Amino acid sequence: MLKIGKGKAFDKVLQVPGDKSISHRAVMFGAIAEGTTRIENFLPGEDCLHTIECFRRLGVKIDREGPTTLTVHGRGWQGLREPDQCLDVGNSGTTIRLLLGILAGSPFFSIVHGDASIARRPMDRVVEPLRRMGARIDGRDGGRFAPLAVRGGELRGIEHHSPVASAQVKSCLLLAGLRAEGWTRVREPHPSRDHSERMLTAFGAKLSLEEGTISVRGGQGLSGRHVRVPGDISSAAFLFAAALLVPGSRVTVRDVGINPTRTGILDVFRSMGAEVTVTPKDQWCGEPVGDVTVTGGPLRGVEVGGSLIPRLIDEIPVLAVVATRAEGRTVIRDAAELKVKESNRIATVAEELRKLGARVEETPDGMVIEGPTPLRGGLLDSHGDHRIGMAMAVAGLAADGGVGVNGEEAIAVSFPNFAAILKELE
Ligand code: S3P
């Protein structure tokens, strides 16, 4: 059990591990590129380690020189071979969905599976368009759920209007589109994170973005390159929240990714009344990087919805914790996607926060939090979901008597040294 006591005011400069989304993509794109891809500040979290293992099983040589440094020896699409065992993605939605886009156009048979959470998450959102491209995929419930079996082969480009803003769907189809005949075009209701677009371009692919539709022409190869991964703003968000939960605190996180498709949480913390300073420093492989400082103060409730949701989808659990300290009502809407994350995050956030005395009402597409409510200590559970585990641990900093979080091993999925960093803030 992870025990977190009530926090004392702090002023810290910290760093967080590499971005999860970018780490996955660096390995995957390096694996299908020609030549060497050297990756620095790779996230050694369980999800990304599963991506490495999947590509090793597909015949790609990947050397790990240190915990956060790797070299992927890509030999192009032709370098992939039929795996002799099932590909295990663990808990990682990004791994399974992007991998399916690569396997669909690879001329061999493979089976992908993951843990109990992965087996519950919808795969039809990628299986259906991939089948329209010509892919042969089968799985539980007609291919709606993993395990999934893929017999890869020739693909043709399609135009796909995704009903949900999802970078995993978009990236899956762009990867399949790289091998397909003709053009593949993807449109989504609001822009989702654009790491694939930036990194594919850095690896030499040509993509075009017109009026919200991203297009790729088939038959393009990638070239390996050096990738330095920015710190993960989704991990940093827990530390920003900590500064808002413990009165009189300030935190600076250095070298964190500040891609505008990911910084929605900073905009929301600002509109709640927090002081947020962003100092841009550099671009790493097409990704903006900077230092971000968050200073606590009185907070007010906010309404969050629409195109902001994909820009902070992974930060909603910790935003809900912060909202318990804000004056007035916080309304989160248009976020039904939360139900199909590593856990049903509308239900798990509400269940856990209520244990501490928070007033949280679940709605079909989000939640309403009435604040401020004093938080009492309690025994909480991660529900096997890394971000629920971390959000609840952070809540402990504001709870009288602190909290204990069971199932804390899930946190290693995205932020392996989280407990050590948070202990410094107790
Ligand atoms: C991710 C996209 C998002 C996000 C997930 C990582 C990615 O999921 O929630 O943590 O790396 O592309 P969706 O594409 O399902 O929105």
Short account of what is shown:
It catalyses: 3-phosphoshikimate + phosphoenolpyruvate = 5-O-(1-carboxyvinyl)-3-phosphoshikimate + phosphate. With 426 residues, the protein is of the alpha/beta class.
Describe this entry's structure for a reader.
The chain is globular. It is α/β, with parallel strands linked by helices and 426 residues long. It contains 14 helices and 23 strands. The longest helix has 13 residues, at 20-32. The chain folds into 2 domains: 2-18 and 231-423, UDP-n-acetylglucosamine1-carboxyvinyl-transferase, Chain (Alpha-beta prism); 20-228, UDP-n-acetylglucosamine1-carboxyvinyl-transferase, Chain (Alpha-beta prism), CATH 3.65.10.10. The site of shikimate-3-phosphate has 12 residues, from helix 3 and helix 7.
Backbone CA Rg: 21 Å
Any idea what the CATH architecture of the largest domain is? Alpha-beta prism
* Total domain units: 2
Strand share of the residues? 25-35%
- Amino-to-carboxy terminus distance: 16 Å
